[in-house]
Amino acid sequence: MVAIADALHRRLDDVLVDLARSASRNRPPGLPGNPVLEAEVRSTLRTTTETAIALIAGDRRLTTEEIAMLRAIGARRARRGVPLASLKAAVQVAMATMWDRAVDAAVALPVSATSTAALGRIGTLLAHLSETVTAALDDGYSEGAQRSDDEERARAQLLADVLAGGVASQGALAEMRLVHTEATLEHGLVLVAAPAPRDGRACIRSATAELLSDLQGATEVPLTSAATSHVTVAVPVESGHWPECVRVADAVARREGVLIFTAPPVAAMELSAAYGRATRLLCVAQNLGLPPQALEARHVRLASLLAETSGERRAFIEETLGPVLALPANLREPLLATIRVLNDIHLRGGIRAAAETLQVHLKTVYYRLNRLRELTGLDHDVAAERMQLALAVELMRFPDVEAVHGEVRAGAEIKGLPLHRLARAG
What CATH number was assigned to the domain covering residues 2-151? Predict the structure, then answer.
């Protein structure tokens, strides 16, 4: 036994190289190559191999202390994110390779009953070692995974407290360190919601699961709003990585049919204010009835200026578009459509592009803009007035202004708009 163990120990480095190659070839299906994980598996191979040689040299089984050590290895690997299947595969490869090398070492010794008996004993020890190591790793992995889950829950709850403004800035920094979160690392916020308030949540859960899988370090935070029914995800990111997070969010939003509001990374002490603003802007986006996409503040901040009360919205729309809304549908809709199209295309070459989008002649677009100027007194060529027209059309998406639209179409006087203006508009 000792002679075979010595032969194995002398060629330990060669054995480990063979093991690493075998482990790479026998990686469980579906597990991608990853330098960090590969290093963890190689470490497990070395530990298992050295333990096997020690057992062979001493002709003994694992002690309680050694089993505890293997269990601790399993717990550490779990916290590092090493798949348990990779650990088990590494152990199996190690045992098979050790057996082959033990046979080679025994064959190299003078033939005797002792060497034959030693080989049989080694086979029994390796079988015991394989079974015991696998069980210890299983136990340790369960403990490590549970500890990771506990830490993740603690981190999620801490982030919820920070976002809700319930933790002071310095307290947040200290508590983040307790749950192994880099306190100085900025967090971006991703709010996942249905396109309209009170819609079903199945699509939200599916989209959230994708984001948690695709965005490294993402944590679902147990914090939401009754107004939007969103799911909150916090993402720790380094400088320059946020645009890629937004790209991933946009792909998920369009695929799952949800609205995703993205708030760029800020320091821990600024998260509460960022979350409050993100929730308000998400509510505006839902009320606008925007299609599934990833949104940033720039997409809805203008509409949010008049999103506080329905009275303000109605008054603004009445004062800006009242004469247009009073027209019959066949005259009104082409004018509104023209404004919407011009809102969605680049300013340079916009008139020609709008004509192509609307499938009308270029002169038709100019005619409609002139008609809008006559009806509203607002000139689309003037930036401030163009912005007022654009905002009024966007605010018409809010559900509570549909009634205003209907009243005008029926010929009723709009509150605050004189009848003579409606008559002149018609």
Answer: 1.10.490
